[in-house]
């Protein structure tokens, strides 16, 4: 039936098309090439007609000119005729008079004397006549010349007339040619129109024939469809039967489906359970591995020592000058990289530290040594790295470095970023940085809006025993660009604050505090590790030059804080029960990062040149003292939280009467050797110096 309907529609469409074709008027087919050509021809025809009109105008002008010239010629001929008649009359008159005169002369000759008289008279008369004659002849001559001239003019005019005639003939020929062309174009156009008409009629006929054929085919199809329809009816009947059967089956399907779903659900549940238990097992293993890794790392660092002291010798620079003062006084042991030899006042002195870096060591070599410490920060350990040494020995170079060759600070942050990224699939980390400085025992924020503001160190009110600095700015950093911005900001703050930054920075401790906070995505476990990078104030003993006033106060503060640091490290290394963290702002601030499982590295910077051997010796002694602390029996973990009130009281009283430097004056085992006249004695008026617990 559908097929039938379709065919019927097709038939209707064909009939409509046929109707349309029949109804189509003999309108010119727009856009066909013949109509374009006929339009062109029409244009050409109108152009030619225009030209003909123009030529006709020209012709009439020429005709007018010819007419005018002919008129003038007739006039001239008339005048010429008049002149000739006048001349003939004159000639006639003159010849008549001549004849009369001759007759008179003859009659007079026939007479005697009286005749003589007559002759005379005649002669007289004859001369007059002769004159008249000659005048007449002259006039005659003139008239003849005029006639010749007129003839010449006439000839020219005739020539002009002839050429005008020729032009007219030419124009006529052209007009005839155009007219013939026009006729031809017109004929062509008519022919084209005729052929177009024929084409159109032919197309209509063809379309009609085609439509008739199609209609016939449609009729045939219709008949076929009708017969098909008759045969389809039994098939339809069987299909209906099938459909009814299927319908019955479908009614029973939900029940079947429910059963299948139930069994599949049970299977999936079992599989999930299995996966879950597998996951639990894996998680347990992972945690165990994590613990193991931490333990191993701990062990490794412990084997190296939780507190390590290394030395770095800077190369001889231009600033060292020339001459004997600038000669090198430091040598190394080729077989042992923990030994350094110094020639001081002609006497060789040797020191053993955890490691010694010669002046050839690169920033990367030094960083390699501290790398393990920095990664332990990610595992939640607190780390302190100090650069110690006299001003100009390379502390800032080691910690900050140069833009082309950055030091520990920037390399550490880069390493942290890459490590954190590696673990990003399991852990979520945030890294924040703070920068502070301690000058004259006053703590200031280098990243704050008001760097002048004094900051206080407080105990966390949560009773955890942790310390914190209210108001210390923390910046979250995610890339090297962020760190550079933070460093730049800190530097700008310091530069605007102090006119002579170099001098100021050598007398203050600069701290970069990096905090790494992590959350284990699968377990929710949280870790916090703190990395403290400290560029200490210059360790040189100012007393040598006899400082006074503010310079002396600065020196006292530096001396005190560096001694306190030495004391704290020594106490920690010897595992003493009491660690005097509170003896300086620096140690108090870093208490968390120095105690417990924390790891500390002291980089002792020394200058290699002769003129600095005194300070080099002093720095190396400090390093060795700190390092060679005997491991005592005290508790391994020393935490502020477990301090007795007695210890607090001790700190309070120490604060009220500032204790002089606790820095020892002696080399290990060499006994006390006081230095008369040195600033150190001036700084210790009581003479009761607390010896370094070495
Ligand atoms: P400090 O901070 O201890 O006062 P600096 O780090 O400012 O000393 O170093 C003093 C000078 O010596 C600087 O010009 C520095 O570039 C240079 N310097 C220090 N250590 C090195 C080194 N290992 N290699 C090259 N130059 C160094
Ligand atoms: Mg410096």
Reported for the largest beta sheet, the result is:
10 strands, mixed
Taken in chain order, the helices and strands follow as HHHEEEEEHEHHEEEEEEHHEEHHHEHHH
- Percent helix, as a range, is 55-70%
Query: What is the mean pLDDT?
Result: 82
Which molecules are bound in this entry?
A: adenosine-5'-diphosphate, magnesium ion
* N-to-C CA distance: 113 Å
Family: Belongs to the TRAFAC class myosin-kinesin ATPase superfamily. Kinesin family.
Keywords: ATP-binding, Coiled coil, Cytoplasm, Cytoskeleton, Microtubule, Motor protein, Nucleotide-binding
Subcellular location: Cytoplasm, Cytoskeleton
Pfam families: Kinesin (PF00225)
Care to give the gist of this entry?
Helices cover 60% and strands 13% of the residues. The protein is built from 14 helices and 15 strands. The radius of gyration is 68 Å and the shape is elongated.
Which features would summarize this protein structure in a list?
single chain; 694 residues; alpha/beta; 15 strands; elongated; disordered C terminus; binds adenosine-5'-diphosphate; binds magnesium ion; microtubule; Kinesin_motor_dom
